[in-house]
Write a structure and sequence with these properties.
The structure holds two protein chains of two kinds. By secondary structure, chain A is mostly helical. In chain A, about 65% of the residues lie in helices and about 0% in strands. In chain A, helix 6 packs across helix 7. Chain A starts with a helix and ends with a helix. Chain B has one domain. Chain B is an all-alpha fold. At the A-B interface, helix 2, helix 3, helix 4, helix 5 and helix 6 of A face helix 1, helix 4 and helix 5 of B.
Amino acid sequence: MNAHIDRHRKVEHEPEMTDVEDVGNFYLYSKVQESDQMKSLGDPEKIVVESLMEHEVQQALDALPEHFRSAVILADLQGFSYKEIAAILDVPVGTVMSGLFRGRRLLQQNLWDYFREHNRLRTKRGGTPLGSEVHGL
Amino acid sequence: MDCKEFMLQIWTLMDAEPDERAWASLRAHLENCPLCQRHYRFETVLRVHVRQSCAEPAPELLRRRIRRFIAELGDA
């Protein structure tokens, strides 16, 4: 019985994860850090926050599938707990957790796309690509 | 706990939702790992940026659910 409860708990409290080796790829932070152009620019949070415009963040959120988007809005914008979100959406807490995990991962992927696009345009326009001053390119 | 395990649960920690045992080991790892502290700070700043950037109305399905939820509370 206890083993069953433990197993149940484990399932509820760990986000669905298939490949632990790839965990870094899920995070915008890792991508910014690993990017040659960005990594010597200083605080990654400063770079990202300064370059991602409000409407882009909004679009990145709007682009999420609705069931993920609802979970992300309730948690990240409204600050509801997993249990509260589960009650509002009428789904199990485990579903809220996996939805949040996938939704946030997708959101960060979308944000990364905007971020890269900025940098590409900046380079194309003949301006200095981010980081070139530092690298002396 | 190593950095990969920490990373897997970084959002759960930010949400203040890990169970008691996980909470202790996550906090212990965070206190001792400058790399994960930087990542944690990044996630925190990013979440605030997302919150401040988005003043959107909830999706229709979500609004319907919240209305139904409130109605159910009224009935109880």
